[in-house]
Specification:
Blueprint (H helix, E strand, L loop, with lengths): L5 E12 L2 E8 L13 E6 L5 E6 L9 E7 L19 E4 L15 E6 L2 H14 L4 E7 L8 H5 L6 E6 L3 H12 L7 E5 L2 H11 L8 E3 L8
């Protein structure tokens, strides 16, 4: 069942924002975990009761090579199995797969627009870092229910000197759709669109992006269940 997976244990957990936490996963053995690019994600498997697996974003502040740090959402009292993350506490055992890095198009002639929601901000921050390091032009829009629930807000704000960074808080569905549509229009056909967040959020971005850019230029960084 766990072929090609590495055994890890939860060594630390701390709060990133309201209802969001960072979880450190460290190997028991002397094996180093595979390296990863900014914006990468990893599959975490927990089967102490029922076999469960979910995809989490890897944070780029991993402190040492035998540990990963992932961003998780753990709302108090969340009983929705479709949205609730695996419960991870210090001392828990789990398994991780090989990190998967998103494709980032480095083209000096192309503009990039990035959309983040929830823990998707971790992946989008990583992609923005890679674009900034390559001197690429980008615009980033981060969405959260409130400033207190905005994950990696400081890390995103640190990129303002490299590109446009905008935070949007407490928008209802109509205002969200208007804001993302306005951010995308007018976009040139070769503009690169990146999005990561809840499935409905990414569906909206993808639907709107199809009106402006080539389908191959729409990049979804999928987190959570593999079905999403």
């Amino acid at each position: 069942m766990h072929d090609n997976l590495l055994s890890v244990i939860v060594t630390r957990k701390w709060q990133l924002a309201e209802n969001y936490h960072a979880v450190e996963l460290q190997t028991r053995s002397r094996l180093e975990l595979p390296s990863f690019d900014d914006g990468a994600c990893v599959t975490v498997v927990l089967d102490n009761v029922v076999y469960k697996e979910r995809i989490y974003p890897l944070c780029c502040f991993t402190p040492r090579p035998r540990a990963y740090v992932i961003a998780v959402r753990q709302d108090d009292g969340d009983t929705n199995t479709k949205t609730a993350d695996i419960s991870l506490s210090q001392g828990d055992e789990a398994f991780v797969g090989a990190p998967r890095s998103p494709t980032v198009i480095l083209d000096g002639c192309a503009r990039s627009i990035l959309f983040a929601g929830g823990v998707g901000a971790a992946s989008i921050a990583g992609i923005a870092n890679r674009l900034a390091s390559a001197g690429q032009v980008f615009e980033l829009h981060n969405f959260a229910r409130s400033p207190e629930r905005a994950v990696f807000r400081e890390e995103l704000d640190a990129l303002k000197s490299e590109g446009g960074v905008h935070h949007h808080f407490g928008l209802d569905a109509d205002r969200l759709a208007q804001t993302t549509s306005h951010a995308m229009s007018p976009a040139h056909a070769n503009t690169q669109i990146y999005c990561s967040g809840p499935p409905a959020f990414m569906d909206l971005i993808e639907q709107q992006a199809h009106d402006w850019v080539y389908p191959a230029n729409i990049h979804r960084i999928v987190l959570g269940d593999r079905k999403n």
